[in-house]
Write a structure and sequence with these properties.
- This protein is of the alpha/beta class.
- Strands 1-2-3-4-5-6 form a 6-stranded mixed sheet.
Length: 125
């Protein structure tokens, strides 16, 4: 399953983003690429809902390839964490300044389980 958003981030020539769902032995990884903005946020929500129906032991939302993180994208990260945290651990992979800085400014680094790499997110206990 993948969702795509149209271009429309901070730059007109920015490529459309996407969300892919990958089942791995540890659980499910949602890999987000491009701008996680108002156009792509619904795609992330649908991917989270799909992942939840798979009943994974762990859900990882990998933002490594995100080029812009808007408030709509951050809202979906919080929604996913709050909706699923009672059933499954949710971890967010974020390491680049473009993604980490908005999360820090909004203090979401205090609320979300942020890991620097996908491997760290999958291995964390």
């Amino acid at each position: 399953m993948s969702g795509t958003g149209r271009a429309g981030g901070p730059f007109d020539d920015e490529p459309a983003g996407s969300v892919t769902v990958e089942q791995v032995p540890e659980g499910v990884v949602l890999a987000v690429t491009g701008a996680l903005d108002l156009a792509l946020a619904p795609g992330l929500r649908r991917a989270v809902e799909h992942a939840a129906r798979l009943h994974p032991a762990l859900l990882v939302i990998d933002l490594t390839a995100v080029t812009f993180l808007a408030s709509a994208g951050m809202a979906e990260l919080v929604r996913a964490d709050r909706r699923l945290r009672a059933q499954v651990p949710v971890r967010v992979v974020a390491s680049g300044r473009l993604v980490l800085r908005p999360l820090e400014l909004t203090r979401l680094t205090d609320e979300l389980a942020i890991r620097p790499t996908r491997a760290d997110a999958l291995a964390a206990g």
